[in-house]
Write a structure and sequence with these properties.
Heat Shock Protein 90; six-stranded antiparallel sheet; Beta-Lactamase; 23 strands; alpha+beta; about 50% helix; five-stranded antiparallel sheet; elongated; about 750 residues; single chain; coiled coil
């Protein structure tokens, strides 16, 4: 292609000039020989006294005639050769002309704009598509001889080019033209030092990419709204103009007057003037960039009075300007009433004790009455305490229910998306499925963070401290975050360790994951290091990064709830500022010291101090739970799935059948009995949900099934309950416990391990 493009418009023929010159020389030589021949003949024929002998003259003329004949034959041969050369030259000229015409036709047939420059970068040739761009702008296209720098300058000056976009990883520069079309400009050098420039129309690609992004954003917004509508709190987003730009159903139900939604209204239109004036100081404070938390009493549309705990969190744009704030409102009326009841009970008790103590000095006769009244006060105090304990228990049950109900649809969605990822739908469909999976990850992380912080505050989570080897925990975490780091353009280095520590492995892993998440999130470039330092009776698990660092006066502030120290110019993230707050609560629960050291502009290091432990010897146990043996993979495994949620059953069946398993799903034991005989049917493994309908649980159902069988089947118990009591109970039964939402890769690894054992 490059050689064809380099053919000039006119082909020079130096052979033709050389041929004419040679012919002229031979003709002159021929004429000279003819004259010599004629002179010799005349001389022989007109012999005289002073001439040579006739015979000698004749002999000399014969020699000359022979020489003339040889020269004539050589001349004729040269003439024949010149005629052949002339024919070859004519054929070459015709072929060159045909080639030039074909090149012109090929250039003209190209769908893209085409321009050819010589080795001086002057324009030689262009096609009609290139010239049409200039006609749309109302100017003439550059002519032959125009330099490439002048072409670029004229395109900007006449308004042909409206925008220019370039990226180091892209093949060329992208321009937006005056006719609304997008073109990508690609330059290629020729072998002779010239330049070929192609203008490719990529408008359809741009429009398709924009449509895909808009669809992904709409899907993400739909999931966020579904989640926020099911959270038992008032959630809203207020713009800089004090307009409610987003709110969930609970917020709209509380502040929607006469059935009208508050969405799109200003705060002073939603609240009464008096209440808005009470909120105004806190609004001004959050618009100055501060997190604000405060309590207010509010009166609903029906006249009910509720006590609300409000949290305002500012929202910053890429330039660091505040463009609005998030609103989180929780109803703490019941908690407030309980606290007031306790306070009143204590006040009454103290007052009565003082009164009765003073009266005892002079009124011994009223001793029994005083004792009775005091007992009544103590009874009321016990009732108040019992009420507080019931409220705390109710909160614990609520958290467990929220965890289960919210994680159920997320678990089903993750199973379906994992099954879709293993199918072949083409790159576009796979990209959409991965976008859904990423959105589910974001929702899962946000919900997990909110539920975890609530459980830690309520004291639901209890540590299960044991001695274990750090090797597997650190290897798994390093593998998990290495791909995340690569996606962000970072290098994750990992120093393995086989130290034995005394801690709760899951809670310790949560601390390290939060450290690594923050390190990757705030490190623009460079690397992140995960390693262990051994000291006398403890080890330091550390995460180093080369991020922007943390100011010294903010080192304690980062462990507060909803606090995020975002460096100037950094991109906004989706976090709630609860990661390090969770780390602080978990470390206090475990008794592990957490420290942070940072140098602004160079990076930070987060450390957690864990005591050294000693492993207990393991007792070998015989495994009799296998019905058949599997040499590799899950192919042909017979698995029963028991879950009261039909969508979970469908998602699990789709995922397991994609792994070549034989799956039977049931929502209860009765449903399973309708499909097969649990006592005699072949099964290799049972997957059961702990929470079932009608106050049943998976442990009892599995016990009933295995009680009927001659050889019990191995069991994987799945639950959203994170309590140590349940974990210990499942462990004592010999079952494997997995928490929701289930990670498909982790599930496959666990099933493979159980089926191979």
């Amino acid at each position: 292609m490059a050689s064809l493009m380099s053919v000039p418009d006119k082909i020079e023929t130096p052979v033709e000039g050389e041929r004419d010159r040679r012919i002229a020389e031979l003709e002159a030589e021929n004429e000279r020989l003819k004259r010599i021949r004629d002179a010799l003949i005349v001389r022989v024929e007109s012999g005289s006294a002073h001439k040579p002998e006739p015979y000698a003259a004749f002999e000399h003329s014969v020699v000359l005639a022979e020489q003339v004949r040889e020269r004539t034959e050589a001349l004729n041969q040269a003439m024949e050769q010149l005629k052949g050369s002339n024919k070859a030259l004519n054929r070459a000229r015709e072929e060159a002309e045909t080639t030039r015409q074909r090149l012109s036709d090929a250039i003209e047939s190209i769908a893209d704009g085409f321009v050819l420059f010589d080795n001086q970068h002057c324009l030689i040739q262009s096609n009609s598509r290139f010239r049409s761009y200039w006609r749309h702008a109302g100017v003439d296209a550059p002519g032959q001889g125009t330099r490439i720098s002048d072409v670029k300058r004229q395109a900007v000056a006449c308004g042909l080019v409206l925008e220019e976009h370039s990226h180091p990883d892209s093949e060329g520069v992208v321009f937006l033209l005056a006719n609304g079309r997008w073109v990508q400009v690609t330059e290629r050098p020729t072998r002779e030092g010239g330049l070929v420039v192609l203008y490719s129309d990529i408008t359809d690609v741009k429009n398709s990419e924009m449509a895909r992004r808009i669809k992904a954003l709409e899907e993400s917004e739909r999931w966020i709204r579904v989640v926020t509508d099911h959270v038992p709190a008032l959630i809203a987003y207020i713009g800089a103009d004090m307009t409610i730009q987003f709110c969930n159903k609970v917020y709209a139900s509380w502040y929607g007057r006469k059935g009208e939604s508050p969405l799109g209204k200003r705060l002073n239109e939603v609240h009464s003037p008096e209440f808005y004036q009470r909120l105004l100081p806190q609004i001004l404070d959050v618009m100055d960039g501060h997190n604000v938390t405060f309590e207010f009493e509010e009166t609903g549309e029906q006249g009910e009075v509720r006590h609300m705990l409000r949290s305002y969190v500012p929202n910053f744009d890429e330039q660091g300007d505040i463009i609005g704030f998030f609103v989180l409102i929780r109803d703490i009326t019941d908690r407030r009433k309980t606290a007031l009841a306790l306070e009143q009970a204590y006040d009454n008790l103290e007052r009565r004790v003082k009164e009765r103590t003073a009266a005892l000095t002079g009124l011994n006769s009223q001793l029994r009455q005083e004792i009775t009244e005091r007992a009544a006060v103590e009874a009321r105090l016990r009732d108040a305490k019992l009420e507080a304990e019931r409220a705390n228990l109710s909160k614990t049950k609520f958290l467990a229910a929220v965890s289960h109900d919210l994680l159920q649809p997320l678990n089903a969605a993750r199973l379906f998306t994992s099954a879709l990822l293993e199918q072949s739908f083409g790159p576009k469909a796979e990209g959409l499925v991965r976008s859904v999976s990423t959105s589910l990850d974001d929702v899962e992380n946000l919900l997990g963070t909110l539920v975890d912080i609530s459980k830690l505050d309520a004291g639901v989570i209890k540590p299960d401290v044991t001695a274990f080897d750090l090797r597997d925990l650190l290897n798994n975490i390093a593998r998990e975050f290495r791909q995340m780091a690569i996606a962000e353009g970072l290098q994750l280095d990992f120093v393995a360790s086989s130290a034995i520590v005394e801690s709760d492995s899951q809670l310790l892993a949560r601390i390290l994951r939060n450290f690594l998440t923050n390190a990757i999130r705030y490190t623009g470039n460079g690397r992140v290091l995960l390693g262990v330092r051994r000291q006398k009776d403890h080890v330091l698990l550390q995460v180093w990064d080369t991020g922007p660092g943390i100011p010294e006066d903010k080192l304690t502030e980062i462990f507060q709830e909803f606090k995020r120290i975002r460096p100037a110019g950094s991109q906004p993230d989706k976090g709630l500022g609860l990661g390090l707050a969770i780390v602080d609560k978990i470390s206090r629960m475990l008794g592990h010291e957490v420290t942070v050291n940072s140098i602004e502009g160079r990076g930070s290091v987060f450390s957690v101090r864990v005591p050294v432990g000693k492993l207990k010897p393991r007792q070998p146990t015989a495994d009799q739970n296998r019905a058949v043996s599997f040499d590799s993979g899950l192919g042909g495994a017979r698995i029963w799935v028991i879950d009261n949620d039909q969508s979970i059953c469908q998602g699990m069946q789709t995922l397991l059948e994609g792994w070549d398993c034989q799956v039977v799903t049931a929502v209860s034991l009765e449903d399973l009995e309708r499909q097969l005989d649990p006592a005699s049917s072949a099964v290799d493994l049972i997957l059961a949900d702990y929470h079932l309908d009608n106050d049943e649980n998976g442990v009892d159902v599995v016990a009933e099934i295995n009680g009927r069988r001659r050889c019990p089947a191995p069991v994987v118990m799945i639950t959203a309950n994170y309590t140590n009591e349940l974990k210990q109970h499942i462990r004592e039964l010999g079952h494997l416990l997995m928490n929701k939402p289930v990670k498909p890769l982790k599930l496959r690894s666990a099933l493979s391990h159980l089926l191979r054992s």
